Amino acid sequence: MMKPVYLDYNATTPIDPRVFEAMRPYYLTEVGNAGSRAHIYGHKAKNAVDQARVQVASLLGRKGEEIVFTSGATESNNLILLGLMSHGTGSSRKHVLATCIEHKSVLGPLEKLRASGFEVELLPVTAGGFVEPDAVLHRLRRDTLLVTMMHANNETGVLQPVTEVAGLLAGSGVLFHIDAAQTFGKEVEALRGIQFDFLSISGHKVYGPAGVGALYIRRCGSRQIPLKPLMVGGGQEMGLRPGTLAVPLIVGLGRAAELAGQEYQQRSHQAARLKRRFLGALEAVDHRINGDLTRMQSHVVNVSFPGVDSEALFLALRSAIAISNGAACSSTGYMPSHVLKAMGLPEDQIASAVRFSWGVGVEAIPHEALLEAVSRLSC
Ligand code: PMP
């Protein structure tokens, strides 16, 4: 039986075979705990981790010692947001700004901050799905500790104005965190060109393995921004993320970062070509694009087909195309998207929203099957 074409790259990407090959020896032949100093096995494991640290940091134009490995962007987001709590309390900076379209792994920790006496403001977005930089500027206060903002929204692909916000915050003493789960290795130049204090990375969105990620933490000379770990243990990762390092996964993330650095332009051009063709094909049926097309990543589009329920469309297409509505990380049942709601979309448009996301390995989007299903379901 033919498998459906996988078009859910924003949920997770396939692993690049070259990444897998880089990891393989660390499962099969290269035993060693990166924390073991007494023998060659430990040294080799540590060297492999250090190389991955540099590979990840280089893609951001930063230094290896500024990278802490985690289990993924969820953990990185939790570590920075909850890890700053005691610094905020100690410095009487208990005001935090975020956007109302953040991922649950940011909104959840923000709830905890709120419950601990922090004032958390969630900034609105426009109908196009992005925050106006002025909205940030107008809400900055003397006691603002942090601005946290995703770089691209996972449901719509709409890019947020991180460059402008970084400019606004420069020299203000307000910390800046970017959740780059969807843009690390994709929006490479944008991230290299700006100043931020923290940045969350996920391995499995960039052709690396799942279960590994990183948190970038800016250093000023030997000084580091004071973060408290969420766990205590063996002191690994400068004490910020104790636990034996997952050497094969970290090697995989490093290799994925290296390959992204070499290939991001070519990947982005190919994705944009597919998008142009796909948008052209969609003209044959009634549809609404959710999000500002001019600010969107090239490999994703969120579309509503009036009168067509998204769940019915997933079902109708299940043997042809694998798609979702984007909130995959919490898909235990139908929950109207908080992102599309925040953009002010009507309920029926939200109920019919479908996200298509693609990447390396996708040669064409089988739009004939889609158009046929949409025409059938909408009558
Ligand atoms: N932030 C965003 C914007 C995401 O899209 C995701 C994954 N859907 C995460 C955080 C969480 O990443 P991970 O799966 O690596 O925990």
Distance between the termini: 30 Å
Total strand segments: 14
The appropriate CATH architecture of the largest domain is: 3-Layer(aba) Sandwich
Characterize the main sheet. Answer: 7 strands, mixed
Q: Any idea of the CATH class of the largest domain?
A: Alpha Beta
The tally of helices reads 13
Based on CA atoms alone, the radius of gyration comes out at: 21 Å
Structural description of this entry:
The protein is of the alpha/beta class. The chain folds into two domains: 5-14 and 263-377, Aspartate Aminotransferase, domain 1 (Alpha-Beta Complex); 17-258, Type I PLP-dependent aspartate aminotransferase-like (Major domain) (Aspartate Aminotransferase, domain 2), CATH 3.40.640.10. It is built from 13 helices and 14 strands. It has helices at residues 17-28, 40-59, 73-83, 85-90, 104-115, 133-139, 162-169, 188-192, 247-282, 310-316, 338-342, 347-351, 367-378, and strands at residues 5-6, 67-70, 95-99, 119-123, 144-150, 175-179, 198-202, 213-217, 219-220, 223-224, 288-289, 300-304, 321-322, 353-357. A seven-stranded mixed β-sheet has the order 2-8-7-6-5-3-4, sandwiched between helices. A three-stranded antiparallel β-sheet has the order 11-12-14. It has a two-stranded parallel sheet with strand order 1-13. Strand 5 (144-150), helix 7 and strand 6 (175-179) form a beta-alpha-beta unit. Helix 1 (17-28) packs antiparallel against helix 9 (247-282) and helix 3 packs parallel to helix 5 (104-115). The longest helix is centred in the C-terminal third of the chain and has 36 residues, at 247-282. The model has no long low-confidence stretch (mean pLDDT 95). Bound molecules: 4'-deoxy-4'-aminopyridoxal-5'-phosphate. 4'-deoxy-4'-aminopyridoxal-5'-phosphate binds next to helix 3.
